[in-house]
Amino acid sequence: MRLVSYWLDDDGWRSGALLDEVVYDVDVALLASGMAGLGPQATTRELLRRHGRSLGQVAAAVQRAAAERSSARVAPAADLRLGPPVTDPGKVLCIGLNYDDHVAETGRALPAHPDVFAKFASTLIGPADEIRCSHITGKLDYEGELAVVIGREGRGVKPHEALDLVAGVMVLNDVTARDLQYHGTQWLAGKAVDASTPCGPALVTLDEVGDVQSLELTTRVNGVRVQGSNTRHMIFPVAELIAYISRFLALSPGDIISTGTPEGIGSKRNPPLWLRPGDVVEVGIERVGTLRSPVR
Prior knowledge:
It is built from nine helices and 18 strands. It is α+β, with helices and mostly antiparallel strands. Strands 1, 2, 3, 4, 5, 6, 7, 8, 10, 11, 13 and 16 form a twelve-stranded mixed beta sheet that branches. Helix 1 crosses helix 3. The longest helix has 13 residues. The two termini are 32 Å apart. The mean pLDDT is 97.
C-alpha cells in the first residue's frame, strides 16, 4: 500500500491511499468495510495510531473501495495537493554520518554510535512543493535519504524485532543551510528551517518495498547525478537505528526516522555545489519513489 496526505479544503489534511495514480480516502474506505474510522482528524498519523498493526486489512478495504467504485475515490493524484505522507509527526529524527563514503568525504572518524539530531513537523513539505529557504542562506545543500515511518509504539526493542515497528518508508531530502549549521556546535539551525524538507511521494509499506537494506538511492540536480549509493552501505542499518533510539526515547505511530545520506553532498564537491533559485532536485529510491523539488 502507498499512503499519501491530500488537502481537502473543509477538513485539512486527510489520509489517502494511492492506487493506479488515483487517491482513495482511507477513512471512507474503512467505514465502508465495517472497520473503525479515523474520527475528525483523519490523518495518516491517526491511521497508524488506530490501525498500525493491521495495515493489510486497511489495504484490503481500499482495494474493495476501488473495485466497487465507491465514494472513497477522491481524484487522480495529479489533480490534488499532496503534502508530506505524515503531516503531523510527533518526532522527526535524523541520522548523521551513516554511510562510509559520506564519513570519508567529511574527513571525520567512523562513529561508534548513531549520530541523532531532530527536525520539526514545520520543516516538512510535500513531494512537489518548492524548497522555499534560499533567501536565508547562500549555502543551501541537498541530502537524499531513506526515511522510516513508525507504525506502532515501542521502547527498548531489540534489533531483531525492530522492523516490526515500521509501517513503511519514504524518500526524504534533508535540505541543509550549511552556514547556519556551523554557526555553533549544534546542527539545529541549519537542519530545521521551515518548509525546507521534501518527503514522499508516498509512505510505502514494507510488503511492497522488500529488504530496506537493499535499495538504490540516487540524487540529481538539474538532471545531473550527484549522489548514488545503496542502503546496504549504511554503517548502522535501519533495525539497529530503531533499537538504539528506542533505548532512550519511546517511538510512536507517525514518528519519522531519516537514516542518513551517502557521499556527494554539495558542500564537499570541488567547487561546492549550492542550490540556487530555479534549480530542481530529484531524489529517487527504487521501489519507493522519486521526489522532484524546485528551489524557490
